[in-house]
Amino acid sequence: TEQLNTMLLNSARTVIVTHMRPDGDAMGSSTAMYHYLKQHTTADVRIVLNDRFQHTLDFLTEGPLVHDMHIFIEDSKPATDSIADADLLICLDFNAFHRTDNLCPLLESSTAAKVLIDHHLYPDTSSFDLIFSNPPYFDNALQAPEERRNAARHTSTGLSYREILDFAADHLTS
Question: How far apart are CA 86 and CA 2, in angstroms?
């Protein structure tokens, strides 16, 4: 977490991206991260989406955020420029760049530091500088033959529930 804090505090231009056809968890996590960064960093923060989210989620993007969000299929230039100018990309709710559709080549070619925060199995570890992914959810259970699957699913090969809860208690504020 120190590495993430350093990346966030040193960033001048942060871009948040999520998967194509963003759903509630993609938009909720993106807008929450946007508001957190606007309150706790001095970075210029943008959200870049491949395509528009459902109108039932419009309430998440009310206020000044609407001016800091760019949708590639509606106007590709500001979306492309935001990614090109970023020094930090925060990738939420997807495990590989191909899940961003048109944004994929822009993200792959970006020289910005890349952070993945996700809950899907098998993140593309070669594409990101820092990964927070899929806390374990089995404790003392039968393990699979694949080590990667065990690391993602079992407390015996990754974080324990106690470590996750202690971290959350130390870092979450009301």
Answer: 21
